Amino acid sequence: MDINAVNNTMTFTQTISTNTYSYAVGDVPYTAYSTPNIAAVKYHINGTRVVKTVSAFMHSANNGKSTTAYVLDASGNIIGSSTLTT
Q1: Three-state SS for 72?
Q2: How confident is the model at residue 12 (pLDDT cuts 50, 70, 90)?
Q3: Gyration radius (Cα) of the chain, Å
Q4: Do 32 and 41 meet the contact criterion of CB atoms below 8 Å apart?
Q5: What phi, psi does 67 have (nearest 5°)?
Q6: Is the pLDDT score of 24 beyond 70?
Q7: For residue 34, is pLDDT > 70?
Q8: 73 closest CA partner among 45, 52, 34
Q9: Are strands 70-72 and 78-81 parallel, antiparallel or unpaired?
Q10: Are 14 and 2 contacting, i.e. CB atoms less than 8 angstroms apart?
C-alpha cells in the first residue's frame, strides 16, 4: 500500500453469458466456458508445473451436489483429478 489513491483501482472487461464467463488472475483477465455439466478454466504455463491444489467457490444453490476437478494437458487429455467432493 501507498498513499497514492490514484493507482488504487484497475478496470477489466468481463463477459458473462449463458456459457461464457470471465475471471482474472492477478491483473490478467481470462475467458472461460461452461456447459450444463462442465465449467472449464484454462491457465497458461511455461515449462513443467505441479498442481498441488484446486480451489473453487461453489454457490450455496449447489449444496448436496458433487463435483470433481480435472487437470488436462495441452491436448485435452486428463492427467490428474481430485476425489469426488460434495
Answers
A1: strand
A2: low
A3: 16
A4: yes
A5: -145, 155
A6: yes
A7: yes
A8: 45
A9: antiparallel
A10: no
| pLDDT at 14 > cutoff 80 | no
* Mean pLDDT computed over 67-78: 82
Residue partners of 80: CB distance under 8 A and separation at least 6: 51, 70, 71
**With helix as H, strand as E and coil as C, how does 21-51 read?**
EEEEECCEEEEEEECCCCEECCCCCCCCCCC
Residue 6 backbone phi and psi in degrees, to 5: -65, -30
Between the two ends of the chain, the Cα-to-Cα distance in Å is 39
Mean pLDDT of the residues in the chain:
78
Domain boundaries, the chain: 11-81
